[in-house]
Amino acid sequence: MTAAGGEVEPGLYDIPAEQYHRDPIPGGSLSSTGIRRLTDCPARFKYFLDNPEPYKPAYEFGTSAHTVVLGDGPELVVVNAVRWDTKEVKAKVAAIRAAGNVPLKPEARKRIDDMAEVLSQHSEASELLTPGSGIAEQSAFWPDEHGTWHRARFDWLREEDIVDYKTARSVHPEAIQKAVYQHGYFQQDPHYRRVAIELGLIPPHGTFKFVMQEKEPPYLVQVVELDFPARAIGAEYNARAAHTYRLCQATGEWPAYSSTTLHISLPPWAEKKAIEEIS
Questions:
Q1: Which CATH number applies to 11-54+122-278?
Q2: pTM for this one?
Q3: Looking at the predicted structure, is the pLDDT value of residue 6 above 90?
């Protein structure tokens, strides 16, 4: 990733997920997750910067689904055991994880295979993720006009599209709308687009599409593209987060929400309800 003299070269790299998440950029770079934490408050961003999130087995199902659907990822190892709380099975599971692979119960592997089968029958989703139409799990690094490095890891990168596969509890339109806001997908989209466009990986008119799939039968699938207002708001939040990042780096201060007394009102809906009841 470096040129002569040790300087990082902007571009697309095929590196392990662990290396990407450790952030190989000297001095640090901004990921979509980091930007979303900065949008919340700098103190939260700094905490996770200094205290990386510990490994969580809860992530394994999503990782496994990505591996099967995208055809790239860690080896999935089925552990045929009625109980996973015995000393022997715990040791086996730990060894699988230590080797960088994912242990799965037979029923979990069956669910994932069934999900992949359902997705393959969805015309638009299967076309977007057709083997050979793109490359999986690629990492990109790019410095902006201020010298701030940004990074992104694309699930599936095509010539004119970025495709991001997400498992979800529900793909009902209202549930998706809620998830887009709560999980900051409206910020992920413009962040990934900008990095890809600036590096010439997709054209300026290139698209970003989410392929969302439910984790429970019947494993419904929905392709999602955010509208312009959602992307514009996300881009503005991202720009503000990057500015905050540079300011905090310069001052060494990473504030929380407020350093003084915060005066709080009731939520507008609660206040309105109370006025109606009291009147």
A1: 3.90.320.10
A2: 0.91
A3: no
